[in-house]
Structures are given as structure tokens and as C-alpha cells.
Amino acid sequence: MQYLPLLQLLVLISLANGAPVIAKRVLGPRLAWPLDGNLRFVDGRPLFGASKTLRGIAAAIVATSLLAPLFGATAATGLTVALAAMAGDLLSSFVKRRLGLQSSSQAIGLDQIPESLLPLLACREAFALTALDIAAGTAIFLVGELLLSRLLFKLHIRDRPY
Predict the structure, then answer these.
(1) Does residue 161 carry a pLDDT above 80?
(2) Which residues contact 2 (CB under 8 A, 6 or more apart)?
(3) Are 127 and 2 in contact (CB under 8 A)?
(4) What sections of 68-112 are H helices per DSSP?
(5) What pLDDT is attached to residue 147?
(6) Strand partners for 46
(7) Which of 59, 60, 50 is nearest to 93 (CA)?
(8) Which of 12, 38, 95, 153 could make an S-S bridge to 161, C-beta 3.0–4.6 Å?
(9) 3-state secondary structure of 112
(10) What is residue 4's predicted lDDT score, i.e. its pLDDT?
């Protein structure tokens, strides 16, 4: 297992997933346009939900692209990580809405696996990741995100402690 490339990538994934939370805390309701435009899917439920905003996607893309060089990656790699992480996050939200779960509700595994697995897969060649690296990275992100989210809740950065 390659520790440094995996650590670099996990930092970028965390940055991509954390940027929307920070943007929400800094900007409040400003620029919080729902990405799905409040559209409903054929089942009558929201496509993604009100918590998935253009502001959040933009924050992830800008922050991860700009800060990636500080963590030994290119801006293009940062962009790839951000896009894949946000695609995973949107996939999770889409599935949660189909399951009848409310926006911002907790679904352990479903909330963490796609938003870490997709960027790990998207960057596997650039970081020379093995299948074991990808599996370990996904597991580390899942556990780390659950622990870190509790800390961010106590610091009043997150709205919920999961």
C-alpha cells in the first residue's frame, strides 16, 4: 500500500467534501440555489434535495482546484477530485431521496462511500493506486468522516453530528 499518495488524495477528497459545509457556514443562505432547481423525480420526490446547491458544488471545485498544489497535486487533479466527490455526493442524495430519506438525513455508508470511492477510482492511475489502496482509502474516509463530523458539529461548523 502506498501511504503518501493515498494520504494526499484523502486530504483532497476531504477538502472537496468539506468546502460546501464551510461555504454554507460563511455565506449562510446567500447563493444557496438548489442544484436540481427544486425539480421532482418521477416518484414525486426531490431529485437531490434543497441541501445540494450550486454554491456547494462551486465551493468544492474552486477550493479543491486552488488548494491541490499545496498538497502535492495539480489543479487539474484537484478539479477531478472535486467533480468525482460531488458526483458521489449527488448520487448519494439521489438514492436517499428514492429511499424516502429527508435532505441532510444520515445514511452511514451511503453518505461516505460514493463521495470517496468515485474520486479514488477517478485518480487511481494518477496516484498509482491498487485495489487495496482504493478499498483502504474508502474505509479510512468513512471512519474519518464520521469522527470528524462530530468535531465539526461541536465547533458549530456542521448542523448535525454525523
Answers:
(1) no
(2) 127, 128, 129, 130, 133
(3) yes
(4) 75-98
(5) 86
(6) 40
(7) 50
(8) 153
(9) coil
(10) 87
pLDDT, tens digit (0-9, with 9 covering 90-100), for 37-79: 999 999 999 999 999 999 999 999 999 999 999 999 999 999 9
- Say how far apart CA 114 and CA 64 lie, in whole Å: 18
Kindly tell me the sign of the dihedral angle through the C-alpha atoms of 89, 95, 99, 100: positive
Q: How far apart are CA 120 and CA 109, in angstroms?
A: 16
The per-residue DSSP string of 31-61 comes to: T--BTTTT-B-TTSSBSS-TTSBHHHHHHHH
Length of the chain: 162
Vertex 57: Cα angle to 81 and 93 (nearest 5): 90
Query: What is the Cα–Cα distance from 26 to 96, expressed in whole angstroms?
Result: 26
Mean pLDDT for the chain overall: 92
**Helix H or strand E segment including 6:** helix 3-27
Mean pLDDT of 116-121: 98
Q: How far is CA 135 from the centre of its chain?
A: 17
pLDDT of residue 36 exceeding 90 = yes
The DSSP letter of residue 157 is: S
Amino acid, single-letter form, for residue 103: S
Which triple of cell numbers denotes residue 50?
Answer: 434543497
